[in-house]
Structure formats: structure tokens, C-alpha cells
Amino acid sequence: MSKQNGTATSVRVEIYDQPYNLRGTDPDYIFKLADYVDLKMRTVAEQTSTVDSLRLAVLAALNIADEYHLLKRKYDTIASEYNERAHQLSGKLDEVLKESARKAG
Hints:
The structure is a single chain. By secondary structure, this protein is α+β, with helices and mostly antiparallel strands. The chain has one domain (9-104). The chain has helices at 27-47, 53-104, and strands spanning 9-15, 18-24. Strand 1 (9-15) and strand 2 form a beta hairpin. The termini are far apart. 6% of the residues are buried.
């Protein structure tokens, strides 16, 4: 969870009509996470005939895990491309600096 002031506080949230007392340092962030999980569970409930809240929670968790892994794969691809480009630019910069030092020396 994100940190705001470092002091953990208890926050009461509701996820799929069930109350939970959660502790964290940023109540707004906790509410945001709880709202997101609640939305995912309600979306799964609309798309399936499942009424068991435990099954809905697991299906919602799988949906969230899928989103996470898709975003992580995209991030890893972009980070790899940026790292490769930074390595290339660093090599070019080294060449320019060596050439400048050779001309100055």
C-alpha cells in the first residue's frame, strides 16, 4: 500500500456487501482498492450465474491477476526497449567523449 504519513490507521470498507476493517497508512488508497475489488466482483457476478461470494472473489482475483500480468508484460517490454536504447546512447556518448579527448590530447 502507498504511504502517506507512515502511521497505520483502521479503515472500514465494504466489498460486495461485506464490511472489512483494513489497516494502512493511506485511507484514500485503501478505499480506492476496496472499490476496485468490489467493482470486479460485481462485474464477475453479472457475467456468471455464480452467487457464491467466495467463488466470485476467486474469479475477481483471477481477473485482477490477469490485468496485472498483462500490464507487467507491457511494462517489461517497454523497460527492456528503453534500457537497450539507453545502452546504445551511452555507447555513442562514450565514443564522442573518447574522440573529443583524443582531439584535445
